[in-house]
Amino acid sequence: MIRFVIHRLHPCLSVCLLLVLLASSVLPANQALKVAPFKRDPSSAALKWANEELKKMSLEEKVGQLISVGVNATFLNQESDAYRTLKRQVEENKIGGIILFRGPVYESVILVNRMQQLARIPLLISADLEAGAGMRFDDTVNFPWNMAVAATGNPDFARRQGEITAREARALGVQQIFAPVVDVNNNAANPVINVRSYGEDPADVARFAAAFTEGAQAAGAIATAKHFPGHGDTAVDSHRGLPEINVSRERLNSVEFVPFQATVNAGIGSVMVGHIALPQIDSTAIKPLPRNIKTKPIDTDEGGEIIDEKATMPATLSPVMGRILRNDLKFSGMIVTDAMSMSGLTIYFTPEESAVRALEAGADMLLKPADVDATFRGVREAVKSGRLTEQRLEESARKLLAWKYDLGLVEQRLTPIDAIDRIVGSRDVNKLAGEIAERAITLVRDEDKLLPLKNLKPDARVFNLAITNGDDRNWISNPFVTRLNRGGLKVETIVLDDRSSDQDVQKAIERAKSADAVFCSMYGRVRSGQASSVGLPNAGSRALNALIEAKAPVIGISFGNPYLLQNYPGLRTYLVAYGDMPSLQHAAARALLGEIDIGGRLPISLPGLYPRGTGIQLKAAK
Description:
The protein is of the alpha/beta class. It is built from 22 helices and 16 strands.
């Protein structure tokens, strides 16, 4: 039948149909990826294949293997500049991998498949999936942040999250997950880690991180512990500047290194090293580059950069830190740099110099360089000049090649399109997200015994003051309000952000004062690279303080930064949801309505207010 149809078609259409059929033969509809559990130590067959490939590779190909470029995978016409730039990196610079940032599901997978077809050696695809596929892929499920997972007290949730995240990652063509975050968040002012951490207790962080690692790698993906040596006790976002942890080795051993060691013991495949200065460990002084040499900021804006004139060597480029990771923590897997486009690095080093220093420090993968071509040239010239040896490149390339073999990429590098909507976003994903969220909701304070809301009259006026530090005023509170409405409450909402006027603030205050119950839903969330990270905008802060002063019956709910009570100690009722994911907003609404038990406990302390482990336990209303 196919032969008959093609015979009768116009010659050009015949060719097109043949191409479609050829594509189908590469990715048959019923074909599933062959995924085996990932093990850190390569198989003998993988090492044999890697060594054979290395013998055939030029110096340039070995350099390229160590570079992974970043992509926002939107639809790209093949003649577009963005597509041709990426294609050139694959074909000319022979890059070894791609890290996917935000993008639609099918556009991302199709683009990766295109690049896999162009590459002589399969590409290793990675993505920051700290909160599941939804963190990077549109219309997929976001799991609650790590701190919410830890608030449940049950590491099995982390293990199950790791399994599902890896399963979805492999179905989306991703083999390496840049998760779990194992930073110990013992600094309440941390502007970039916050709820991405499992908490402030090293032993607890270690338990949850090891569980995630085991789950993810059993399901066939490489897990990555980040951000070594620890980004929890910092007050600077490394997207904007170079953070410093000015502590001794003894302190690192007892706090920051504990969860890293636990994941290493659990067999984790890779560790991401962060742009973090440790002056007591490596005191090598560095200076900012002259403005005419420095790369323009990529992960923040020029006004947002934090420049320290008395900085010391970042861990990413420090051989001291590389030796600690390899020799003391006994880590034998892949060392990945944090994105090399971040200001914590680019303020002080050119792309060429940072790449060479990272390899000298023991890195295997150079992630998202600020200038890929400059990075490539810098490494190649370092080998030609004798600063780096070709054998040093081969050490890292061998590891990457062997893992590509064991991940099944040599046998099948293309991702079946037809299988995606049978695997990604399935019912068990939403179910697990909901379970974690409902177990995580934490009631820190309820001095007036307002919860659950069982005494409100049917015609009660309920007002929701939503305060957001994002550009999302039109929809951010919708999941919360919609779920309250389903529970029988009629809720009026006003959203305040950094664009709100004095009139907006006054209107919100007046509406709240005439209400029978007032919710203040606070969306102060981690916003990497932004100066406004984790805090609330001035307009919302003024409105909330006015309501607290007026003794309005305000129920504060933090849909993000759990430390916000420190800024508003007069709040008499305070509930923590740890994030703005729909699952967490729905769970918070159900908790307020008394539909579910409230059983979460703080994985962090609120300095001066409440210790770690605080959580008022409430049974669902009958």
